[in-house]
Amino acid sequence: MTVIRIKADLCVIGAGSAGLTVASGAAQLGRKVVLFEKGEMGGDCLNYGCVPSKALLTAAHHAYAVRTGARMGVCASEPEIDFAKVRAHIQRAIDAIHPNDSQERFEALGVTVIREHASFVDERTVRSETREVVAKRFVLATGTRARIPPIDGLDRVDYLTNANIWDLETRPDRLVILGGGPIGCELGQAFRRLGAEVTIIEADRLLGRMDADHAGRVREALINDGVDLTEGSKAARVDGTATDVSVTLDDGRRVTGSHLLVAIGREPVFDGLGLEAAGIETDEAGLVCDDKLKTGNPRVFAAGDIAGKGALTHLAGWHGSVIVRNLYFGLPTKQSSAAIPAAVYTDPPLAQIGLTEAGARERHGDDISVASAAFDDNDRAIAEGLETGGVKLILGKGGKVLGASIVGERADDLLQIVSLTVHKGGKVRDLTEAIAPYPTRGEIWKHAANAHFQPVVFGRWAKMWAGLLSRFH
Description:
Elements: E1 4-13, H1 17-28, E2 33-36, H2 43-48, H3 50-68, H4 83-101, H5 103-108, E3 112-114, E4 119-122, E5 125-127, E6 131-140, E7 144-146, E8 174-178, H6 182-193, E9 197-202, H7 212-225, E10 228-231, E11 235-241, E12 244-249, E13 254-257, E14 259-262, E15 266-268, H8 275-278, E16 300-302, H9 313-329, E17 342-344, E18 350-354, H10 357-364, E19 369-374, H11 379-384, E20 390-395, E21 401-407, H12 411-423, H13 428-433, H14 443-457, H15 460-470
Helix pairs in contact: 1-9, 3-4, 3-6
């Protein structure tokens, strides 16, 4: 087979959020761009992650609303779950978003899209089955995949991951999930609300990277939904078949189910990329790169999950922006210059940005304070009958907002109010100055900020000063 040789300004491997951001930006700036993708355009998020999981969660939310409507005076019988229609809803969501990430769209932007596996043959050349590309710069954005732990017997069972769980034609009767992180909690709650029995096995604590108090609210919700939670225990052995599985824990207990989902973390995908030929080093997190995402080969950048800086779609998009800014605008931007929010889309949802309370105390000791407010004192939450949760502001010296956490209805959207404050290095006073429409959940940030100042504003000296001024007015 004849291999066609191409010269380009930029060669991108991987068409997920990071790769597509770089390819789109460079192409619109008139650069000659080649994009390799051996799998589906849109990467993990569109096809196996963010989009299908949120569509599934929405179906589960509707089922939950039917079951619990009686408390609002809306009575209905137990919902009938048509799993085929749930799957169709998920596919419609993917299909509706797909054109934004499609090969046709990027070719219309001027990108040469090659749907083949590519690997380095030397420091400035990559080759696929039909193409050889020599480029000035390269971006590796091949992402991550589900990490499969070395559990005895797991390799002999047809387990599920976030990549193939969407292939199920029928709902699992009894789903056992290894891992109590965001994927395990989201899918566990969704399948439980759609009628499956669910057990989540977590070696540490549920949602261990999130604020402990707020993660506890999610734990309560899962238990109330009927999810069986096992924390502080590891899976020691797995036996069974694709539809009849048994997990033996390290304390001797056994958990049985019809299906097994492995969701204990992610690992970088860089096998078969010819990294040694390109002079690129790796570690457990991903490609070794600096804060501008440049690898040991000055021509090659890492972007997205494979950069080892975190596995979030919006972080991957930010990485793409950092690379475009540095290469084509001459703006010296570091990937760590932006505060990256994270969200868990359970019910209630949980979101945070910056330092958690525990992380701040570890880093700053007693030089921090915490301002909080609860949704049971928020009029909109009370009107909705959804008062679970609240917010925390983590404050440093001078009232600088070091981080924030929120758990409760629409927490993922509401975090954006305080995200800008954190990103700009703002102070808690900034949150007191905004006027929020009434009644909205967003008022809760102002209430938390006001709580921080209450001892000063309404304290002894303030009362004395007000008394003095009142004599002259």
